[in-house]
Amino acid sequence: MKYILLLAVVLGTLWLMRTLRKPKLPPQPGATPPPAPALPEDMVSCTQCGMHLPRSEALPGRGGVFCSEAHRGAFESQRGN
């Protein structure tokens, strides 16, 4: 039993010394920083079907914003515009 304990202490000491002795690598000078996370966008709902989508992907129309060209056309034909 004492040999197992002695072996565990020696192995633990060697592992600790090896871990502490590893040099910390500086960042590479040519490496680009990671891209910044995207900022949240305003969400809007399609006037025709109510689906929510980011404002940047919405299609503006006379009666509001729409998720697709088909919904914009359907809404405007229903309204007679």
**Largest sheet descriptor:** 2 strands, antiparallel
Q: Order of strands across the widest beta sheet?
A: 1-2
Quaternary organisation of the protein chains: single chain
What order do the helices and strands follow? HEEEEH
How many distinct helices? 2
Structural class: alpha+beta
Task: Assign a percent range to the helix content.
Answer: 25-40%
Number of strands: 4
Low-confidence stretches: none
The value of Rg in angstroms is: 31 Å
Mean pLDDT across all amino acids: 89
Distance separating the two termini? 91 Å
Relative strand content: 5-15%
Task: Write out key terms for the chains shown.
81 residues; alpha+beta; two-stranded antiparallel sheet; 4 strands; elongated
Characterise the protein shown here.
The protein has 81 residues and is of the alpha+beta class. It has a domain at 42-81. It is 38% helix and 15% strand. It has 2 helices and 4 strands. The protein has helices spanning 2-21, 69-79; strands at 43-45, 52-54, 59-61, 64-66. A two-stranded antiparallel ribbon has the order 1-2. Strands 3-4 form a two-stranded antiparallel sheet. A hairpin with a 2-residue loop joins strand 3 and strand 4. The longest helix has 20 residues, at 2-21. The radius of gyration is 31 Å and the shape is elongated.
Short précis:
With 81 residues, the protein is α+β, with helices and mostly antiparallel strands.
Map the helices and strands.
Blueprint: H1 2-21, E1 43-45, E2 52-54, E3 59-61, E4 64-66, H2 69-79
Antiparallel strand pairs: 1-2, 3-4
